[in-house]
Amino acid sequence: MKKCLLMSVAVLVTLTGIAQSQRSSIQIAKLKYNGGGDWYANKTALPNLISFCNEYINTNIQSNDKVVDVGSPEIFFFPYIYMTGHGNVVFSQSEAQNLRRYLLSGGFLHIDDNYGLDQFVRLEMKKVFPELEFTELPYSHPIYHQKFKFPEGLPKIHEHDGKPPQGFGLIHQGRLLCFYSYESDLGNGWEDQSIYNDSEEVRQKALKMGANILSFAFTQD
């Protein structure tokens, strides 16, 4: 699929004053991968984030998030793909190439470390972009300054190792293709409150940061 096709989907959800009736709804998806890692983690996360975004940043995203295989041509139907898990990740060469084409065609990948993903996903993303390195984004990056302001970068949602949260990116020709939220665990904060018993303040931080990521993914040049 051409870049213009994916970008035309993104235009449908630009955060403007367009009337609801004039915008077509889109879908976002969770990435399914091989290797034994729990790609299916955080089952209530995306539906809750979608509901929050539709209410607070004027998107029109379908409430039923989808699952898409990393090697499937259907990946090109989704302007935003969410990837999470705790364990092993394996991309075949054909899957890596498919993901590369998707990202270079205008798609956006959000990798959300759910604790334990880091050592695996960095190796596999090297198959996708051997020429690129994850770079920590400065706090001044627009992804932290959409509708909701995060002047100190990613919020800390779950402690895990007690390390500070970091936001990394893969950037190609000035465009952020992939945002990697590390040691933050946004997806846990998006989950139903009863699952982790996070305070409403913590959940709101996670949801607002998630809304910023979607807003940025849909509107960047």
Automatic annotation (TrEMBL):
The species this protein was found in: Agaribacillus aureus
Residues in DUF4159 domain copies: 27-218
InterPro entries, alphabetized: DUF4159 (IPR025297)
Superkingdom of the source species: Bacteria
UniProt-recorded name of the protein: DUF4159 domain-containing protein
